[in-house]
Predict the 3D structure of the following.
Amino acid sequence: MVKSVKPEWLRRPIPNAAALTKMKGLMEGLQLHTVCESAHCPNQGDCFARNTATFMILGDVCTRNCRFCAVKHGQPAPPDVNEPEHLVEAVTKLRLRYVVVTSVTRDDLPDGGAYQFAKVVEAIRDYDPEIPTEVLIPDFQGSSSALEAVIASHPAVINHNVETVPRLYPQVRPQADYERSIHLLKQTKSMAGGIITKSGLMVGLGEKYEEIVKVMEDLRAVGCDFLTIGQYLQPSKNLFEVVKFVHPAEFEEYKKAGLSIGFTDVASAPYVRSSFQADKMFRKKP
């Protein structure tokens, strides 16, 4: 494992306190959550200052306990029927022209939360059909009907992160399954060939370069269009430790490899996250 002191390229200015307070107040007032806060995203200060955030629906308690994630886990509350309406109100107040929505994993629900995703996408489209919505979905335990429900709501992008290489799943994502995630992206293209698909990876967990390239090849084999790659940062001392701080030059190598394999676009840098400048990536759609 590496020492906890971050290298120079990972040092950032203190986040904008006023922007953090403003966004937190808005979310609390509407009984909404952002993955930015719940997952301790290092970009939240920058994003909040630009009046943008990634909404996290279905509460802030996850039914899984991934070893890389700071989101709380346990027994979640039932879905909030007013959540789609509240989210649209937040979109209005923030004047968003591109909306990213994710969720905690809800293995306790028969549909895994798919219908709540669909209701949110439909509510945004009813408010303004010109606003694209990107959904970052869980694996729904492999349920085709759940995935179909999300696709039927016509989001612009379906994102599902594989997170790491297959070898590290038992240590990093013990309740997930790599092949199931790859299959979900394959199914998405087979159900709606024109839809944009996206996935993301963390590095610095002990993976090898060749393993990352193999994951890229697996993703392209099922038609994945976009890829994000960022540095894993340990959210708390109880979670998986950082094995390596990956140098920016290595991220550039990953980007070159991904583009050569055939992704439409690859965002690869230490502070890249799943929804990092998602609107800009969307504009490069195939």
